[in-house]
Amino acid sequence: MSAAGDTALNARLLQRDASVERWSLLGLASPAILVVMVVMVLPVGWLFYLSFLGDDGQFSLENYNRMIESKAYGRIFWTTFKVSVLTTLICILIGYPLAYFLAQLPSRMANICLLTVLLPFWTSLLVRTYAWLVLLQRKGLLNRWAMDIGLWDEPVKLVHNLNGTLIGMVHIMLPFLVLPLYGSMKAISEDYMKASSNLGAGPVQTFWHVFFPLSLPGLFAGALIVFVLCLGFFVTPAVLGGGRVIMVAMQITTNIELFFNWGAASALGVVLLILTLGILFAASRALRLDNILGGGHG
Amino acid sequence: MLESAGLPITISGVTKTYGAVYALDSFDLAIQQGEFLTLLGPSGSGKTTLLMALAGFLRPDSGSIKFADREIILTPPHKRDVGMVFQNYALFPHMTVAANVGYPLKLRKRPADEIAEKVEAALDTVQLGGYGARRIYQLSGGQRQRVALARAIVFGPRILLMDEPLSALDKQLRERMQIELRHLHERLGMTTVYVTHDQREALTMSDRIAVINHGRLMQLDTPRHIYDRPANRFVADFIGESTFLPLTRSGDEFQFAGTPLHLDQPPTGGGDYMLLVRPERLKVVDGPAPDLNIFAGEITELVFQGDTSLAYVRLAEGTVIAVRASTRAGEAVQDAKVGDRLSFGLSRADSVLVPAEDGEDGA
Asked: I need a surface site. Which of A152, A248, B47, B78 has the fewest CB within 10 A?
């Protein structure tokens, strides 16, 4: 066979080789794709469909109209948003110094301390939430201590309200903020701090001019995770809010368990999903913008 | 406008230990005003430790460091007013080129128009005029190096520290930057302390070289003297290629394999000495050469390296010496083959004796 024939044959074989490789890669992903289809795409599609059915089983926008017309729904969305923002902010205030402290430790100490941050992760969410209920209630540990040492005279309402909801949610959410933040802080080279200091910046200036801006991507990532998780959170606000702090996830449960109104519940789920996706999209746009304009913090 | 008279640096008795290891062992060094001094040594020799102590990033156990008459060993880094170029440049990735270079001026609360003017002047100095708006990730390695340099000199420091600044660049760019840095130093006049483990770089750039090993100063001298008159075996071995020939001594006469050596400067101190033979200082001789020290032997290997070639020659008493010869047409070594016997001559001036001990016990 001629050299030209060999070359042509080789080209065909190489092409087939490449396509076999592509298909086998896809094959690796197929179990996951299948699971996502069955447990995620189909149910969400079904929810979407249900949300457009009226009481009579015909197509209708009544589930969405109710959300616009009823003041109660507006209040629920507002509460959800408010609780999520407050939880995220408190997490940042507590979590940033914590992550900073962890990032300064020698790595063995840091690993031990990280373990204590992670430990609650391995305890049941429900157990932790009820533990807070015990600690925070009217005659709970915290109120007794505080009154014993004279911090306040009357028991303070720490639970079954916004206070309790926030305390519980911050506790649950903190690791979600600390872990990505710690990772991004660890990735900041010590040389940047040295350079800043060498150029004349004191420790405080170095922190604000160099360390803080470089830690922002991690902070954004962590805050975004916390905020999005908060939007759909159920157990902790349900137990610690005592029915006074009603978030979207709780209203969905009520609609199904109390009113058997799948349409209304589905519509709420769809709106929550779209809001969450919208926030994620806006945040990713803002983050990309930050990469381009990143000098603004300097 | 960026020129500044350098400050002399006096380092005395600086000691830094890590556990039982002395990174710096009661180190003394006087760096003159405006000179380009290179700290040269193998990794772990203490040269970087010393530079970090000068910059203030490392707290010595004891000793004194003075910039002119000012004791600075307790001064935090941000109050030392020294420029520094880091090995990996440490340019702030979240700032533009101009913001990086303007950073030290901003910290010194200079007015905005002055900052803009000085930043542009500094960028012009490193031939990056007009690059101010670029992001760091848009720059090549050589350009980053220049930005780091501009940032280190923009606030007119009187001392400039450089930690292997060229090690990340490819060979051609590195050699061009060596010349550029040298010119920049001559123009700006600041005292420059340069750390490298690359002996050729040190020889190319420095006014003086401080050779360091195991936290101690092995030799401090001009490049020429360091190369031609190494104070001890470590320096001779670390800088340039070298073969050491064992000598026997009787009084002031030194003999190699029974033949007395012709020497320009016989050592006056006691103890044993070895003859340092630099490969490029040997030349082929045929016929009598009464003023040269002659080494005859058999070629065991020939290596062609382009500009020069290297011949390994086994002498009668067994030592193998290397001979470097130009590849110019007509050079005797070029026509030789393995197994040929040749004689090589070393002039009196090039016949240098170094103490047989390696200098570990103090130079």
From this structure: A152
